[in-house]
Design brief:
alpha+beta, Alpha-lytic protease prodomain-like, Alpha-Beta Plaits, 2 domains, 4-stranded mixed beta sheet
Length: about 325
Amino acid sequence: MSDDHGHGSAGHDHAAGANQRSLRIALALTTVFLLVELVGGIVSQSLALISDAAHMFTDVAALAIALAAIRIAKRPADARRTFGYHRFEILAAAFNAMLLFGVAVYILYEAYLRIKAPPEIQSTAMLVIAVIGLLVNLISMRVLQGGQESSLNVKGAYLEVWADMIGSVGVIVGAVILKFTGWAWVDSAVAILIGLWVVPRTWTLLKASVNILLEGVPEDVDMVELKKLLLAVPGVKSLHDLHVWAVTSGKSTLTVHLVTEPEVNAEKQILPEVRRRLAETFGIHHVTVQCEVEACGQTDEEDHFKSATAALAEKHDAAPPIA
């Protein structure tokens, strides 16, 4: 029997530092404009502006929580939390998704009430504030863009700002229409569109966060292909107890038992090749492999896994080729 444990986290701390700086800048910009937009919405009696301000409040909360999560996640592992505190970033992303969903539902409800009794709205003030908001959101998006690919936490904050940017565009369009037509219901219609636009994107973020919290297979890992890759390593006869999950976004972990040919030196011939293939193909660097000449006892969970991967393989093979 042979055991191997390899891991790598190159660039993770550097990325966290860069993300922290980006979040600070975006938080400062968004907080200042939140106050401006809230006052402007109350003065102009624009629900679109007030709803956008409410959404921007969630931006501020999202950015602050994301920033705090990164600081906590940087704490080293200890005797009680052997994986460290990386999951705080995922908890922050899930919380932000639920917060944004709640705001979207409130906007839809308030817009429905206002359509029945639209108030008088100052379109000029609404337009000026919305344009300033658009500029602030574009700057914040540019600042956060680099980190949203590597961190689900930053992606959550980025989506908050992105959704608010779309909201600002909607408010601008609504203000222009209102100014030239006097249709007060346009303000509520824009608010409804903002709410409907936000909900599905919130669901996507929440689903990705929950998948990590439930230790599901990372979305960019195809288990059928992963199993084929491991079985293709020379000297490997079969495998079992294969598990893949992510501690946080971009930090996947794998454990597996490999049954090998008796004459093969697993430590020198198999383990280095397994690590190389997993890193190059799936970006998995944190790997624990147990090599066995004979398979150890399998659990019911492993039988369920076999059935699930067999079903996936059938779907995979039956899928029509992409033209």
